[in-house]
Amino acid sequence: MSAGNPVLDDVDGWDRIGHSQAYAQVERLPAPLALELLKTIKIPDNLDRLDIIVHDNGCGIGAMTSVLESSSPRLQIQATDASPSKCDEECLNVTTEIADSRSLSQTHDDWFDYTFSTFMICLAPEPHRLAQEMNRVTKPGGTLALAVWADPWTKACKQVDGRHERLRIMDDGWTDPEQVKAGLQEARFKDVVLVTEKWP
């Protein structure tokens, strides 16, 4: 019988103990992509004005929040996730909240100037509800910056063997770029721009 992984098997350990080495490994993938997302949307230099409010929706371990705080230290950030996150341990100007992204009931309509969501909507249940809720809490004229995993692996496998079926981990409608665009437009986002990043 295997002894297991004490970091992963201890469900409370991620919150109670600072597993810095484990976090560093997990952050290696989303942190550089979060930085690329920030560069892509060309945020103005005045982002750290006191009246700008940013939402990191589905913040997870806080990779996007950390990138935002590093680029604009005075920025007001609200970071939400369905489970306790690590970002409140490291970020000074961040309010964190455990929240279901399908129903951000504690947030007023048209509240955030910028909404960021990285690699959450393609993995979460009811992604269309998530998109609608992000539209509700983002101000008219505000910006949603969304990152999702594409699914080239499945496409490559199907070219070799048309019978290939992958595990249904991600929602198919939120991994294909054109379907992501259609889903955002259905949620009433305007001027949707797609940018595809290749990652090693």
UniProtKB/TrEMBL annotation:
It comes from the Eukaryota. SUPFAM superfamilies: S-adenosyl-L-methionine-dependent methyltransferases. Residues 56-145 form the Methyltransferase type domain. This is Methyltransferase type 11 domain-containing protein. One of its GO terms (molecular function) is S-adenosylmethionine-dependent methyltransferase activity. InterPro entries: Methyltransf_11 (IPR013216), SAM-dependent_MTases_sf (IPR029063). It holds the Pfam family Methyltransf_11.
